[in-house]
Amino acid sequence: MQKYLRHYAEPETAALDGLPAQPCWENVVVIPACNEAPGFLRPPPPCGGRSLMILVINESPTASGEVSLRNLALAEEVRAGFTPLWQSAPGSGLSLWRDESSERDLLLVDRFSEGRQIPARGGVGFARKLGADLALSLIQRQRVRSQWIHCTDADVTLPATYFSCCNALPDTGSKYAALVYPFSHIENPDHAEDDGVFLATRLYELSLRYYVAGMKFARSPYAFHTI
User: Fold this and answer.
1) Nearest-angstrom CA–CA distance, 225 and 155
2) By CB atoms within 10 Å of each CB, which of 26, 84, 117, 189 scores lowest?
């Protein structure tokens, strides 16, 4: 873990040296967000204590003005609805916020402001890696008690058992590298998507499940979802 953080982690992890001694968290979840509405900032699933959301708001240098405005609006929603706890040194783009309405804090990662955009070809994979590097560093610093790094997306509605089901597992560090949660694409009444879009989404999900079923039939050790 230390070797990875020293040689391969993104430089933002060094900014965590200035993080105050408290708080500590039971679980951590990484969410990359670009051009997203703030609805996913709803209270998180319970985890037996405080959880930490690492929110990486990101955009590329070629993003449209509309995307930039949406990202700025999301950051402003955090600043308006959460209580500030800590700000990293200038240039690092990290800030810690307390959610007074739930057992959750939020580490905001600014990779959308001028001069802080992600690499043009980095995409969501880079943003997710950055968030996971920060989560790993916090685990290594014993600021997060769970050894699992949860990763999801801003358009996902998480079940109440999202954290508790992995917390209930025995010590599996030497046996399992990842957990894949059950998922389902559902029609969102808040969006005016036509029937064709919803049908295409369901067919896409069916293809994901069919692929895994085929891998199981072939007795492949890789018969699992990769999303």
Assistant:
1) 18
2) 189
